[in-house]
């Protein structure tokens, strides 16, 4: 079965229709790129899929449960236990060390400090940023910060990772490295990835592309 399914998603902001019909499904372990020009509705789609923004109509179903029918408490519990997030700018907490940042989602889920730290360091090692564990985000490079953000996204063992332009603030070499490590890490845990990008080079890491144009999201089946 599918892990995440969208049917008839629509969302308007005042007179602006951001999303006008999104129908597709994502299977466990699949890396799916959501592509399209700026303003086409990619971020709105991602926010609706992740249960951050409620659509005006349509449904999102995650693992057989209708996300769009849940209340805020149920949705945020689901996000914290099942989803991981990576944004364009790492959005690391500047006052915490990189290891504390990577451990944060586990701490918020009530995991004791020592176990959370051990899991964070394990992911930081796999993402080749263990050496910055005691540094603050302001003391590391952009590439290192994004790899810490990927460690943070993976630390809870999510089934689904949402990545919104995760390499948008990086040069191409660091961007490629982040994509390589992100997709390797996701595949090693069979997590699916929804990757929003406008760069073909980044989308090349996906199994499949969904193209968004003027709010329409269209599934382009591609040979893997
Ligand atoms: P993309 O991620 O592809 O750049 P967005 O989903 O951000 O596209 O935006 C789609 C359309 O919806 C754009 O016209 C944008 O200006 C509009 N939009 C997005 N978010 C808001 C908002 N919070 N308020 C008003 N308009 C918005
Ligand atoms: P990466 O390839 O991960 O982006 P770099 O080669 O850019 O790393 O950086 C190498 C070293 O320089 C790192 O140990 C990092 O701490 C430091 N560094 C790089 N950029 C910055 C920055 N903007 N601010 C502080 N330190 C930085």
UniProtKB/TrEMBL annotation:
Keywords: ATP-binding, Nucleotide-binding, Transport. It comes from the Bacteria. Residues 4-224 form the ABC transporter domain. One of its GO terms (molecular function) is ATP binding. It holds the Pfam family ABC_tran. InterPro entries: AAA+_ATPase (IPR003593), ABC_transporter-like_ATP-bd (IPR003439), ABC_transpr_LolD-like (IPR015854), MacB-like_ATP-bd (IPR017911), P-loop_NTPase (IPR027417). This is ABC transporter ATP-binding protein. It comes from Streptomyces gamaensis.
């Amino acid at each position: 079965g599918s892990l995440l399914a969208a049917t008839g998603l629509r969302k308007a902001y005042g007179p602006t229709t951001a999303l006008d019909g999104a129908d597709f499904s994502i299977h466990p372990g699949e890396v799916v790129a959501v592509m399209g020009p700026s303003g086409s509705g990619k971020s709105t789609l991602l926010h609706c899929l992740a249960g951050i923004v409620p659509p005006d109509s349509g449904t999102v179903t995650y693992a057989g449960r209708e996300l769009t029918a849940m209340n805020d408490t149920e949705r945020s519990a689901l996000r914290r236990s099942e989803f991981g997030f990576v944004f364009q700018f790492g959005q690391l907490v500047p006052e915490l060390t990189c290891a504390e940042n990577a451990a944060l989602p586990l701490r918020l889920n009530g995991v004791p400090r020592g176990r959370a730290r051990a899991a964070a360091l394990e992911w930081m090692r796999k993402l080749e940023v263990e050496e910055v564990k005691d540094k603050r985000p302001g003391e590391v490079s952009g590439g290192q910060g994004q790899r810490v953000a990927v460690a943070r996204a993976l630390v809870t063992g999510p089934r689904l990772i949402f990545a919104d332009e995760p390499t948008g603030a990086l040069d191409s070499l660091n961007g490629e490295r982040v994509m390589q490590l992100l997709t390797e890490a996701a595949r090693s845990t069979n997590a699916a990835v929804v990757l929003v990008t406008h760069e073909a080079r980044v989308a090349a890491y996906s199994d499949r592309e969904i193209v968004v144009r003027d709010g329409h999201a269209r599934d382009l089946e591609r040979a893997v």
